[in-house]
Amino acid sequence: MTLENVMKQDDNYTVLKDINLIIKENSQIGIKMTSEESRILIKLMAGKIAPSSGHIKKETNNILTEFTEDGLYETLTVCNYLTIFKKIAGFKTSVEDLIGTFSLSDVWKTKISKLTLDQKRRVSLLRMSLFSPELVLIQSPLSNSSTDGIELYLKAIKHLQENNTAVLFTSHYLEELLLLSSDIYRYNRYSGLEKTDLSDDHNLVPADKADMGMKPSKVYKVSSRSADKTVFFSPDEIDFIESVNSVSTIRIGNEHFPTDLTMNELEEKLTHFGFFRCHRSYLVNLQRVSELVSYSKNSYTLILKGNPNVKLPLSRSRLEEMRTLIEF
């Protein structure tokens, strides 16, 4: 499947734009995006809705989808449920030969209503595999999963990969996509779909140290409390942080997340991850900076990649420090 410059509007609001993507046989792709963006993208790729502009070229119509809110027939047992779909799919082999692969042997005669969320997700995955799909589109399959549930789901996904099924996952969490995908993209509503450059840690660690149980020395997330939950952000997700009335706010695209940390505390933690205090009220992720503009002799402004409307001030006293950091 190939997507070329795909754009989609909903109620005169642009949900997706600049989507360029090629999905090949057996590939496992992850896209970091919001739930709304995910819902629209999956419907576009499945042919349930048409793009407002751009092209989607499909070499197969054997495509299945799974949204987070999709349900199963709760009153049926796992056996009865999958037997029904075996007949619909025309699947020739016994389903019981696969229940071990999907770790469902213990609940084969159990009503679906009695299953855990982890088990229901594996039942759904097995149901889709009966149709021998060439492409599966799945929305955030590991959210709220247990540790064991994640391990068993990853094992089940291998079955699809071994049968040359391409799988595309969407999620709001990069960590989830890292477990599921070999190629990861991030959707930015200003600049479209961008491929995330992931380094292979095994290639970076010397062979004689790889087995020494070494642990990462710099693991850090910025937390934000909202109602009854705490949300954690990886430094690379953050565009910049601003301080207004002594309240620090994380900025990711158009979204705002307050944090209890002061700007000084954040600067100390995030400098190691490429953040720079461009102004006393702003801490910017230098990886997101695309332009430095001088509007006058003493006035400098930083423009962020894909977001020209955001203009961060750069103090004259900080200019030379920034020159040294990024060597320009």
TrEMBL record:
Keywords: DNA-binding. Coiled coil: none annotated. Residues 1-214 form the ABC transporter domain. Pfam families: LytTR. InterPro entries: ABC_transporter-like_ATP-bd (IPR003439), LytR-like (IPR046947), LytTR_ABC (IPR012046), LytTR_DNA-bd_dom (IPR007492), P-loop_NTPase (IPR027417). Residues 222-328 form the HTH LytTR-type domain. This is LytTR family transcriptional regulator DNA-binding domain-containing protein. It comes from Alkalicoccus halolimnae.
